[in-house]
Design goal:
alpha/beta; Rossmann fold; de novo design (two linked rop proteins); 5 strands; about 10% strand; globular
Amino acid sequence: MPLGRILVVDDEAPVREVLTEYFSTEGYAVESAGSGAEALSAVRGGRVDLVLLDVRMPGLDGVQVLRKIRELGSGVPVIMVTANEDVALAKETLKLGAFDYVAKPFDFDYLDRAVAAGLARISDKACQSEKDDPWKRLTRAAFGATRTMQAPARTSTGERIETAALAAARHAAAGRAAVAAEHLAEMQLLLDVAAEFGDLPAEDRALVESALEAARRSLPVSG
């Protein structure tokens, strides 16, 4: 089962191909659109959980598409994709309801975490419909907790928790249970460190540990 459904929207085919290939290999279901009209059709059809949306496109540009997505009442997270010269414009889209923005050329480590964090913000209703998937539950719990951490704790520990959660989910999906278990153990250690330093409230830690235990139980027993 995919970690989430991503829509890549860009008028440049090479960009669509790079992002589609990358996120497909990372365990996501990816659809692409070359125009704003195609993107809106996919969103209206309920086919996506998150949108990667280029700011500059002919016809309906990214800002217009973002406005229309919000007018539809869709809560789907939108991450704006921009060239360096348009970063100021991308920052303004946060006021229009964009979840985040990323600049080209891509920092894939940051983009990876931004996508997972966006998916972690999906409504409780959506999470309830996927309650039987322990790996989606784990990533959402991890990202939901770490995004509330204060800097520098988020940089020193939180991002490592996020990375371990993603790695565990991907290795589990690929059938590498032993490697997934190692990443779960790393997560537990990092949670203990964060709790010891007061960087993670007890309630948040409990939610993540509950999801972690559910993920651990879903792994096949070796032997």
